[in-house]
Fold this protein.
Amino acid sequence: MLGEYRIEGRGAAEIAADVERAVGTGELRPGQPLPPMRELAVRLGVNPNTVAAAYRTLRERGVIETAGRRGSRVRPKPVTTGRDQLRVEVPPGARDLSTGNPDPALLPPLAPALAAAAEAGDRRPVLYGDDPVDPELLRVARAELDADGVPQGSLTVTSGSLDAVERVLAAHLRPGDAVAVEDPGWGSALDLMPALGLRAVPVSVDDDGPSAEDLARALAAGARALLVTARAQNPTGAAVTASRADALRTVLRGHPNTLLIEDDHGHGMVDLPPHPLAGVTRYWAFVRSAAKTYGPDLRLAVLAGDPVTVDRVRGRQRLGPGWVSLLLQRTVARLWAAGAVDRTAVAESYRSRRGPLLDALAARGIEAHGRSGMNIWVPVPDETTTVARLLQSGWGVAPGARFRLTSSPAIRITVSPLTPRDIEPLADAVQAAVRPSPPRVYG
């Protein structure tokens, strides 16, 4: 059944570690079935309960899945391999539009703010037991959260958006719980679900945000949490509109115990206002990241939420990293308060690349989406063929499989590296990759 690979181990931890290692090295492939528990127990000379415990550990880690009488098999996209392995190797000379990175030219210089924060740290070094959150960062963050309609609540700081999402989910959910997620959606968040032992329930997305009808079905089917992107959704560029927010709130009011997590990583780079859903449910978190506006290496996000959620996040944080560096917090606070980024200009810069590309594709009859942010999403008949043809034309794009659960094939194009001269050649290349000319017949 497993070809050349033989699972080894005597204890549950050893068996689980052996399978996880084999999946990571490729000796066990995605979708490959595992032996029935009793059969493997006999071969290894252990109690069937030992194998059952090993399989349970592997399920909770997101390595395998169980489908009733069909048995257990390696997940199609196991956590051990991760969606990042679906990335494209862009050859020298080709333009890399696959990364999802911001344009470095639009990021502010960090040296002055870092130097000022370090000088303050020299005057009064941060020690164990100090307040783990910079009060100036909370002040500027709270003022903007108020202006955007995010409810009053507790605030804390995490090491970026994904760290915040993971901590909030872990604070409320247990392995086996279901989470409604955007499909297509952020690949790292989709990987996080099985890593925590959670089940991802897909909710379709259009330009205006998640489908209220799909969300209603997901919650009725038992989903205990919802993860939604406020704007600049990765990968589609969707932004939740006021009318869609009203529809989503109506659904959530019927499920008041749903854990709601909103990701606003587009803050500072998108000129569309957010329409927060927070406050409708008992437990909620609104995450505002500094990565896309001030720099990915700052690894910092402000988390607003209900008191119970934020208190649980802080408590678990104390037992791990302790706190996010006050040096980085003070740096971001200075950048934020000083208006180091011209947000209108940044939003216009991304729109000036995104909009013309969407128009050029539309003129060629190619459907594409990108209402906000730095990415556009192009549905295609076949991802592998389209990506390969674009690479041959000198353009590297991301395959949609990195961002999909059950939604249709597509590619993601990051517009950050584009110049005005790139638009028409890129649109021509996409058209040729999606709709190649039929071969000429001679004779």
In short: Residues 161 and 289 are 6 Å apart (CA to CA). The radius of gyration is 24 Å. The first strand starts at residue 64 and ends at 66.
